[in-house]
Design brief:
The protein contains ten helices and no strands. α5 packs across α7. The radius of gyration is 19 Å and the shape is globular.
Length: 264
């Protein structure tokens, strides 16, 4: 029971945090992401010629795991701090969008499914990296081997896993017609996130401040302006989406020409 209490941090952690970018932090997240990457490559290659139903099974498993872990985290936090803690645990962070996008990609059809797959491919890798290596707000406050960091690391790792798996298994469409839907998905989370930030004084989607992440660069650039900073964050989301699509097309054309030369 003492180990469980300490792992979940009931009453506060007795251990001191090893620190952001400490050897423990770097070893943990590197090992985690290497495992996720290896699994994604293995399963993606194995299912590349499989049916859509079989491909979707892996995504469905990822959806169940990522949402299950999030439910465990929310339940533990509410048990410790009370049900009112739920207002600070809503799925309104950038990486939290994957809690909805991955199930959508596994269970929906048509353009919504395609856009969900695109969204995972675009934001999964950056979420996996920023939510592990750049998570100064977590690893600076909690011990590495704690529920806060282990569950956060796993959920961000699953986002990266899903993105790589989708690419390797050939599920990504990345159609130009899906770009507006991808914009709409990110905007549909930014608006309620901004509203909740104002209501409960929080920092969903990092729309209020950087909190030790690379968003601090933008925050410092505009001197924390209450309008320019959140608009800048949304603008960066849109810019990143646009650049990712363009890079995908450039790489796809280059690989296609290379295959043609090899066949010739």
């Amino acid at each position: 029971m003492e180990l469980i209490r300490e792992f979940f941090g009931y009453g506060g952690y007795r251990r001191l945090p090893e620190g952001y970018l400490s050897p423990e932090h770097l070893i943990f997240v590197t090992s985690l992401l290497l495992v996720m990457l290896t699994l994604a490559l293995m399963l993606g290659r194995r299912n590349r010629s499989a049916s859509q139903e079989r491909k979707n099974r892996v995504l469905l498993g990822a959806a169940i795991l990522i949402d299950g872990l999030e439910i465990i985290k929310i339940t533990a936090k509410c048990m410790e701090h009370g049900p009112e803690e739920i207002v600070y645990l809503l799925p309104l962070f950038l990486c939290s969008v994957q809690l909805i996008a991955i199930p959508l990609a596994a269970l929906s059809k048509g353009r919504l499914r395609e856009a969900a797959l695109d969204f995972i491919v675009i934001f999964g890798p950056v979420g996996a990296l920023l939510g592990t290596y750049a998570a100064g707000q977590n690893y600076g406050c909690y011990p590495v081997f704690s529920a806060d960091n282990v569950i956060s690391g796993l959920t961000h790792g699953i986002s990266g896993f899903a993105a790589v798996y989708i690419l390797v298994s050939g599920m990504a469409s990345m159609k130009r017609s899906n770009v507006p839907i991808t914009y709409a998905i990110i905007l549909s989370f930014c608006i309620p996130a901004f509203v909740m930030n104002k209501l409960v004084d929080y920092n969903y989607m990092f729309l209020m401040r950087g909190d030790g992440t690379p968003y601090d660069l933008l925050y410092n650039l505009v001197d924390g302006h209450v309008v320019l900073y959140p608009l800048g964050v949304v603008g960066l989301f849109f810019l990143y989406i646009t650049m990712y699509y363009q890079l995908f097309y450039v790489v796809s054309r280059a690989l296609s020409r290379r295959r043609c030369r090899v066949k010739a």
